UniProtKB/TrEMBL annotation:
Protein purpose: Catalyzes the transfer of a formyl group from 10-formyltetrahydrofolate to 5-phospho-ribosyl-glycinamide (GAR), producing 5-phospho-ribosyl-N-formylglycinamide (FGAR) and tetrahydrofolate.
GO biological process entries: 'de novo' IMP biosynthetic process; purine nucleobase biosynthetic process
Pfam families assigned to the protein according to its UniProt record, in alphabetical order: Formyl_trans_N (PF00551), GARS_A (PF01071), GARS_C (PF02843), GARS_N (PF02844)
UniProt gene name: purD
Record pathway: Purine metabolism; IMP biosynthesis via de novo pathway; N(1)-(5-phospho-D-ribosyl)glycinamide from 5-phospho-alpha-D-ribose 1-diphosphate: step 2/2; Purine metabolism; IMP biosynthesis via de novo pathway; N(2)-formyl-N(1)-(5-phospho-D-ribosyl)glycinamide from N(1)-(5-phospho-D-ribosyl)glycinamide (10-formyl THF route): step 1/1
EC number per UniProt: 6.3.4.13, 2.1.2.2
Residue numbers annotated as active site: 551 (proton donor)
Residues the entry annotates as binding (6R)-10-formyltetrahydrofolate: 507, 532-535, 549
Name listed for the protein in its UniProt record: Multifunctional fusion protein
SMART domains assigned: GARS_A, GARS_C
Keywords, alphabetical: ATP-binding, Ligase, Nucleotide-binding, Purine biosynthesis, Transferase
Site keyed Raises pKa of active site His: positions: 590
Length: 640
């Protein structure tokens, strides 16, 4: 397999490394704007330098290397139709065609399109063609606004009120400058919350999602200074981010999927490439900040090294429209990426500084960016010079590894030392708590279908209750409840009650495994929903006041019975009323303090099946109410 990479920055170095790990051992070639020594080392084919935005040059190089596949890294070649030219030459491309790449290359196109596809996630915006229109838009938005240049500016064409623009006069001056060179700009509502990125492989119909990351655009520590192309980013081992709830990730994944389908419906052109959603977690849910049409830089430096699947196979499936046939799994590790830049960046980074790059250390990867070879020396070119990503079981471990490697780099480069540190991450967590209040993080234990969870899933995904379902665990790998969770992007894991040798595990040791998983995901409250195992006394003690069970009867009646047997017993006893009970889990089965009950009549002609249906509807309501009560108790610093 022969793959042509277009682009020569650190992102493309990460792509080359990921392709090199493919079992298919593809022959790599590169068309870059400059010679990247890291990419050149991995290329068994050609390395050509030139204008990467020239469709004719891209076609010529693809023919020379007899490429089976091309992968476009930066956005500029997408804007000029390089992907279209390569497809026309018979070379499949990971990178969207010009018509749909406009989701990044034109802010106005993006906003108008999103207003049609997902209007609830789009801030108020105005397309402005004159200074008079700019004044009107600012009058409408008041003190909270963002001014965006319509075209590409490498992440530097956005100015935000209160951060870059400190008065109406400054905003109008920026608008005047932009409109002197461009026909229009976008002024939109300033979103308040925390930004995050979610990247997805997309084949025009289907998506494979990558772990979410948080980029840091500002140049200096403490989120100060001008915007840059990105000074670093991080991911967490949980597949979420410390300041997000699981439904934030689910919402972002759903939006990416809707946008991929919507682009094809509206333009008639399938989006085949990487869709990069830039989102804001707000008090009311997730809103869209922007869309990019390629791998993020630096986010690619976090997620590509974590990829356990075969990137060459994933990309082949992507261009052939069969992404649903492949898997993209990622190592369950945290990653922290930090860019090293020359002094003076981003305004005027020093050029010609000699840089010494040490060998990669354990738990790190290095990616070369804006560097040139002068004789035997690497020298700075003025922009982001190189990046290192540290990996670990925790963010602390990953950040420490990145910093340890950075300390041995020579050349006077500077970086943001605060990226991935506890202080900056806690600032994000505290900000979201201030906006949303205390959100309770729920873990679920189940052995059956988990039908009664539907109401809770709906409530958290619509942000109508301050809670999130972070993980679902089962003692059965075939439990339907696991599939329900996975369909919603919720981590779902089966923990076997037997050893690899087939012997039954000690109940206490098995429950310790459950506890480790729940703690890994930062769970506050556990819901037992159709869980068919008796929990150990130690587990009940560990989660005292934080584990709830839902039972399909009005306890204490019919305690100890399960599922359909309960409803049969209710009918056999001639009861006129039944319902469900949520109670605290204790070592004595079904005997813990009752939190709440829901009731319904037993009707003439009822069967165990009809009773079960009605009680499950009540269970769905009861779980939502129980989680709300738990949230209220946690707000007051109490257990349930």
């Amino acid at each position: 397999m022969r793959i042509l990479i277009i682009g020569s920055g650190a992102r493309e170095h990460a792509l080359a490394k990921a392709f090199s790990r493919s079992p298919q051992k593809p022959d790599l070639s590169c068309l870059g704007s400059h010679l990247n020594p890291g990419i050149r080392e991995l290329c068994r084919g050609q390395y050509r330098t030139g204008d990467i935005t020239d469709p004719d040059l891209a076609q010529a190089v693809a023919r020379e290397v007899d490429a089976d596949l091309a992968c476009i890294g930066p956005e500029a070649p997408l804007e000029t139709g390089v992907a279209d030219a390569l497809w026309a030459a018979g070379v499949p491309v990971v990178g969207p065609r010009q018509a749909v790449a406009k989701i990044e290359t034109s802010k106005s196109f993006c906003r108008e399109l999103l207003r049609r596809i997902c209007p609830e996630a789009v801030p108020a915006f105005y397309l402005v063609t004159s200074l008079d229109e700019a004044e009107q838009a600012l009058d409408e938005l008041g003190a909270h606004y963002v001014v965006k240049e319509d075209g590409l500016r490498g992440g530097k064409g956005v100015k935000v009120s209160g951060e870059h623009l400190h008065s109406r006069e400054e905003a109008l001056a920026f608008c005047r400058d932009v409109l002197s060179d461009a026909p229009q700009l976008v002024i939109e509502e300033k979103l308040v919350g925390e930004e995050f990125s979610l990247l997805s492989f997309a084949d025009g119909e289907h998506c494979l999602h990558m772990p979410p990351a948080q980029d840091h655009k500002r140049a200096y520590q403490g989120d100060r200074g001008p915007n840059t192309g990105g000074m670093g980013s991080y991911t967490d081992a949980t597949g979420s981010l410390p300041f997000l709830n699981r439904q934030d990730i689910v919402a972002a994944q759903n939006l990416n999927e809707r946008v991929v389908r919507g682009l094809k419906e509206i333009t008639g052109v399938p989006y085949q490439g990487i869709l990069y959603g830039g989102f804001m977690a707000t008090a009311k849910g997730v809103s869209i900040v922007e869309y990019n049409a390629r791998f993020g830089d630096p986010e690619a430096l976090n997620v590509l090294p974590l990829l356990e699947g075969d990137l060459a196979e994933i990309c082949s499936a992507l261009v052939e429209g069969r992404l649903e046939e492949v898997a993209a799994s990622f190592r369950g590790e945290a990653s922290v990426c930090k860019y090293l830049v020359p002094p003076g960046y981003p305004e005027k980074g020093e050029r010609g500084l000699v840089v010494t790059v040490p060998a990669e250390a354990a738990g790190t990867e290095c990616f070369l960016g804006s560097l040139a070879l002068q004789g035997d020396h690497l020298v700075t070119e003025g922009s982001r010079t190189l990046a290192v990503t540290g990996f670990g079981n925790t963010l602390d471990e990953a950040e420490a590894r990145a910093e340890s490697w950075i300390a041995s780099v020579g050349g006077g480069l500077v970086h943001r030392g605060d990226i991935g540190t506890p202080g900056l991450i806690q600032k994000r967590i505290d900000h979201m708590k201030e906006l949303r209040g205390r959100s309770v993080r729920v873990g679920v234990l189940g052995s059956t279908r988990g039908t009664s969870l539907q109401g809770l899933f709906d409530a958290v995904e619509s942000f109508s209750i301050p809670a999130s379902v972070e993980v679902v665990l089962s003692d059965r790998p075939d439990a339907v409840i696991l599939g329900r969770a996975r369909e919603r992007g919720i981590p779902a894991r089966a923990i076997s009650p037997r050893t690899p040798e087939g012997e039954k595990k000690d109940r206490t040791l098995f429950d310790e495994e459950l506890t480790r998983e729940f703690r890994f995901f930062g769970v506050d409250v556990i819901l037992c929903v159709g869980y068919m195992r008796i929990l150990s006394r130690e587990f009940c003690s560990t989660w005292h006041g934080k584990a709830l069970n839902i039972h399909p009867s009005l306890l204490p009646d019919f305690a100890g019975a399960m599922d359909g047997a309960v409803h049969e017993a209710v009918l056999a006893a001639g009861r006129q009323e039944t319902g469900c009970t949520v109670h605290l889990v204790t070592a004595e089965v079904d005997a813990g303090p009752i939190i709440l009950q829901k009731r319904c009549p037993v009707l003439p002609g009822d069967t165990p099946e009809t009773l079960k249906d009605r009680v499950q509807a009540l269970e769905s309501q009861a779980l939502v109410e129980a989680v709300c009560r738990a949230q209220d108790q946690f707000e007051r610093g109490m257990t349930v």
